[in-house]
Amino acid sequence: NEARRIFEMICHYWRRLLGAFFLITLAAPVAAWAQGSPNQKLVEAAKKEGELVYYTTMTLDQSKTVTDRFEKKYGIKATLFRTGGGPLLNKIFTEARGGRYDWDVVVGRGEMVLPLIERKLVASYLSPETKMIEEQLVDKQGYWTAYYVNSYVLGWNTKLVKKQDVPKTYEELLNPKWKGGQISLDTEAYGMMEGLKRVWGREKGINYFKRLAALDPVLKRGNTERVQLVVAGEYPLIIAYNQTLQRMTSRGAPVDWLPLEPSVTQVNPIMLAAKAPHPNAARLFYDFVLSKEGQEMLRGFQRIHL
Q1: CB-based burial, 116-132: b 16+ in 10 Å, e otherwise
Q2: Greatest distance between any 2 Cα atoms in the chain
Q3: Minimal CA–CA distance to 159: which of 260, 231, 266?
């Protein structure tokens, strides 16, 4: 019952968040950062606090690389917790109900924003780094700023599917040849459905996913593990984030990907805790990940940076 409640709540917020958190495009805005130094008073205050608690949905090894760089740069211990979007939102709510406010900064998925704002769990902060980011990717009230974006794309195992046989459109993906566990889908890919509904209209969008469900796809949470299973040959096709697939492609794995038009792109925002136990370290980390250095790290992860 609790899982269903969370699922229904997330679906509700997706519908409300479409305007702010989905771009029907393949390209992300790229800014040219000017070299700058952080506010020294903020750095000194953050070092006195000496610690940061970071919650995130970003891949664990990449998140650890970011926090390690932050620790090395400022000498501030960073405690990292990583899980999926639904479980992370539930964790924050559960802790808040118990009067626990342990986290300082969160990077999550778009559907987390409204419920966190409504429960007064995030603070307003307009980082000086936001001047280099497109206006549509920065909340005017300062409650969130886009950190990176993910596009839903179609991937395939190159040993199991010839390139000429890969579906090139959403309609081709419905071919009966892909019936019976041939397509991997994320159980929390609410954004893809809501994004397509925005373009196609509610009736067409829902009808499409009913037809897709009739093919009996493999339903599993997450992107990294599902992509690894495609690489291992567990199934030939997958709908997943472009950056997860590209990471494996760049390593020489037998997997490739292409966008289906229209491609739904999800914005992943960074937010500051309203009751952050280390507010100065939180602001410094916020600035760090949005800075030129932080965004260049995303490029190294093969993510779409801002």
Answers
A1: bbeeebbbebebebbeb
A2: 62
A3: 231
Least confident of 12-21, 129-138, 149-158: 12-21
In 2-99, alpha helices (H): 2-21, 40-49, 60-74, 85-97
Least confident of 24-28, 42-46, 70-74, 296-300: 24-28
Task: Calculate mean pLDDT across residues 161-169.
Answer: 96
The residues, any chain, with a CB within 8 Å of residue 248's CB and separated by 6 or more, are 227, 228, 231, 255
Instruction: Judge contact between 115 and 8, C-beta under 8 A.
Output: no
24-to-193, 194, 239, 250, 260 alpha-carbon distances in Å: 12, 11, 16, 25, 11
Round to whole Å and give the CA distance between 102 and 109. Answer: 20
Residue with tokens 């999550």: 108
Six token digits for residue 45: 């205050």
129 membership: H or E segment, kind and range: none
pLDDT tens profile 210-252: 999 999 999 998 888 999 999 999 999 999 999 889 889 989 9
Output the pTM of the full model: 0.75
